[in-house]
Amino acid sequence: MNDLFTPALTRFASRPGNHHVKAILSSPRYSAYRDNIYRPVSGAKFTGYWILRNSFTDPKSPSTSDITILYLHGGGYITSQPGHYLLFLLRLAECILNQDLSVSIFALDYSLAPENTFPAQLAEAEAAYKYVINEQEVASEKIILAGDSAGGHLALSLLVHLHKPHPSIPCIDAQFSKPGLLLLLSPLLSLHHEPPSFVRNASVDTLTARFLRRTASLFLTGRAKAIKIDEEPERNSPYIEFLTPEPRIDWQTVLPPRVWVSAGGDEIFLDHITQWVKTVQEIVGGDCVTLEVGLGKEHVWQWMETLIDEGLKKSFLNGKLGDERIFEATSAIGKAVLDRMRGQQGVT
Predict the structure, then answer these.
(1) Is the pLDDT of residue 184 over 60?
(2) Cis previous bond, 119, omega within 30
(3) Nearby residues of 49 by Cβ (< 8 Å), 6 or more positions away
């Protein structure tokens, strides 16, 4: 499958998540706190990791945290796991802690295609969300539901499901509360529409249209051979299609009160993202939905630099906890999200 990736993504895909975890936990920056970082959880219907619980030095129940992030990783539903995101999420946690707020982060390790096709990932995301609220007793308004790329797609699918349960998944709790904020980084919004930015940015993005066509097939059918997505009966299902869903999605009801979206100016998803944000802003109001576009940046560039830039990683991991001079793009996410969370109940 490496022939589907750009060189940057090939390098990422060739290393398992535990390769990154070992290097991070043994680093000067984090080794003293390794027992409090990246703790596994195995539920009846999901698995995942507590990246951090409340703080590095004094782990506590997430119910005591000012903010709890439920993170859904990207990878086209066919690759990646929370270990690939550990440095990115720890950097994000440091930013929030530096604002004198406590934070817990849970990263879902959902099942991948082709062995597990949709809606298996949605069922696991629902189980994780219920775990955070019911078992960890985290107030829903303190939850940031976050995801990048396919993880952003899964986050939107979960929100639609909370409003109207997917017919293949047992009914969830009635009146299950929405999170306080939705954070989307370069989200996948459609499996079958290819806008002009797919061509315009093809030579500069780390993501390729060919990769997306193949992952759509694996995700929906479990088959590697590319399908004719326009002939798939479920192609416009509101659980997987967010630009032209049938029936239409009631975004006013589905979305949390605050939404923050990031896109790269050089990524192939750019036109999809700007189209979706414009549509949603017209429905829920421009003040509720914020889009920030990184000029000259590729798909999920904030995370990519924490994964593949070995020089920056070495400098960062040899530095002191709380030093924000490296990976400023990730720090900017934390600050922007905190600005949106200010005023939410329990976040001051």
Answers:
(1) yes
(2) yes
(3) 38, 39, 40, 41, 82, 106, 107, 109
Q: Which residues pair with 49 in a beta bridge?
A: 40, 107
pLDDT band of residue 61 (cuts 50, 70, 90) is: very high
Q: Which residue, chain included where needed, has tokens 């997430």?
A: 62
What whole-number distance in Å separates Cα of residue 255 and Cα of residue 158?
10
Place of tokens 């999809």: 272
Q: For strands 39-42 and 47-54, give the pairing.
A: antiparallel
Main-chain phi, psi angles of 163, to 5 degrees:
-80, -45
Scan for tokens 């924490």, then name that residue. Answer: 306
pLDDT at res. 39: 97
